[in-house]
Amino acid sequence: MARISSSKMREHLKVYFIAGSTNVSDPLPEVLQKAIDGGITIFQYREKGDGALTGEAYVTLGKELKELCNKGGIPFIVNDDVELALALGADGVHIGQEDDNVLDVRQKIGDRILGVSAHTLEEARKALQDGADYLGVGPVFPTSSKNDTREVCGPQFVATLRGQGIDAPIVAIGGISITNAREVVEGKADGLSVISAISQAGDPREAAKQLKEVW
Ligand code: TZP
Ligand code: MG
Predict the structure, then answer these.
(1) 21 labelled ligand-binding
(2) pLDDT tens profile 21-58
(3) Percent helix, strand and coil across the chain, each rounded to 5?
């Protein structure tokens, strides 16, 4: 296997759904299946916050979600947890600046997809140099799905990074919904990453479909 190409990565990033069991009111596998039916292009299992699953329940849910992604033909990414990603045979891992070192994670996961959150030009350059396949940039808008975020950077920050020579695949995150998704696309991101716009939608399938149509 070889590292994923930038063009393939960009395609996968278009509609990037992130969720864990605490983000949904209906069972997550049901919500994920609807999101897949609506056209999401990649999924990240991010089990965090009050009441997050641990131990066997955490692993079992991950396994179920991975199978749905496999059947749906989309990559399954695990947030933060390299051991779980390897145990489940995930397609990749996403880490933040406060998580494990990018070089170490790249070494552990081989050619699997590696996403890294970056908030400055320096963080972006370093992550790519150390082996990231894509960058997560945000929050581009205020969000209530994560309380320890950096300052809101606005959708144009992606275009700023482009102007500073970062041409790697970038997915924007934070407060993205169908009403502001166009601004993100115009800000030169390759993809829209959302939690609540799909996980809290009355109709996750329709929400995913509408986000896809923005492209
Ligand atoms: N990282 C930066 S903002 C955010 C994460 C995980 C939360 C995004 O959630 P939402 O509901 O799409 O604003
Ligand atoms: Mg993290």
Answers:
(1) no
(2) 999 999 999 999 999 999 999 999 999 999 999 999 99
(3) 45, 15, 40
Residue with tokens 């997809």: 113
Q: Which ligand is nearest to the CA of 136?
A: 1
Tell me whether residue 130 is annotated as binding: no
Q: Reduced to 3 states, what is the DSSP secondary structure of residue 55? A: helix
* pLDDT, tens digit, 9 for 90 and up, residues 117-148: 999 999 999 999 999 999 999 999 999 999 88
What does the DSSP 8-state code read for residue 196? H
Lining residues, ligand 1, CB within 6 Å: 138-139, 143, 145-146, 149, 173-176, 194-197
Which ipTM was obtained for this model?
Answer: 0.98
- Which residues are paired to 194 by β-bridges? 17
126: amino acid identity, one letter: K
Centroid of ligand 1 to alpha carbon of 142 (angstroms): 9
Q: Which domains does the chain have, with CATH numbers?
A: 6-213 (3.20.20.70)
> What does the alpha-carbon distance between residue 89 and residue 31 come to, in Å, rounded to a whole number?
22
Catalytic residue IDs: 46, 117, 146
